[in-house]
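Minutes, project huddle
Topic: does the predicted pose make sense with indole-3-glycerol phosphate bound?
PN asked that the exact inputs be recorded in the minutes so nobody has to dig through chat later. Recorded below.
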Amino acid sequence: MTTILDDILKEKAKEVQKLKDSGAVEPASDTTVHSLYDSFMNSDLLSVIGEVKRASPSKGDIDNQVNPVEQAKAYVEAGAKAISVLTDTPFFKGTMDDLAQIRKAVDVPILCKDFIIDPIQIRRAKAHGADVILLIASALPKNELVSLYNEARRNHLEVLFEVHNEDELTIALDMDVDIIGINNRNLKTFDVSLDVTETLAEKIRAEETLVISESGIKSKGDAKRVTRAGAKGILVGETLMKSDNIKETLEELVVPLGSDQG
Ligand SMILES: O=P(O)(O)OC[C@@H](O)[C@@H](O)c1c[nH]c2ccccc12
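Predicted holo structure (tokens), as shared on screen:
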């Protein structure tokens, strides 16, 4: 059975080929580093990554009219500690230009949210102002994940290493990655459950590993639940994209860490 992830990766391979054929050389980029790891590890509150997401394969159009720069600025003003920008075009209707524009407008770490399968995409992300890239464990075999991870680090990028099950988590732990994203959404079936964070976070023992719970987070209750499970950060797209009051919605999610209080 082919899944949506297979379809996305197939399109991505074509995009990468075009990029290579174009012979475009990425301009040298600003070397300022905004460390998501340092920022989130040094906070007493749950850190929110606000995601700019026009559409998705599971939800269709979320907000196709959004002004990505205004949206990102509103997130930061409301207290988001980082911004995620979907840059995939065919499935999420984002662009690399969104990333570059947002980079000029905000001063927090920016995650380039894409399906990275080749080093050329890493250099492109860096050139457009990303501080962090996403690597999705279910997208590639381990040896390729390792080489892309190393390529990102050589480019002074942090990596959000995304896992969804125990096998993928084992790979993350073997690779000794600093930032593990636990995706509550199964990218093959679109099922979403915060149980995934609870089950997997428990198996991450190292204090110095930053755990981020991704997808399906809607309420203060959800934020508290993943915090209790060990997450220090959350990645929130749809709830913020659909909110009529970003400040109120986001502030609700910024719960204290390491406590069952409140
Ligand atoms: O809109 P949500 O349910 O809050 O989810 C945000 C983010 O976690 C989700 O967009 C995401 C997580 N991992 C991904 C990988 C590819 C594309 C998208 C994603």
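Observations noted during the meeting:
- Residues 51, 53, 113, 136, 162, 183, 214-217, 235-239 surround indole-3-glycerol phosphate (CB under 6 Å).
- The chain has one domain: 33-253.
No decisions taken; revisit at the next huddle.
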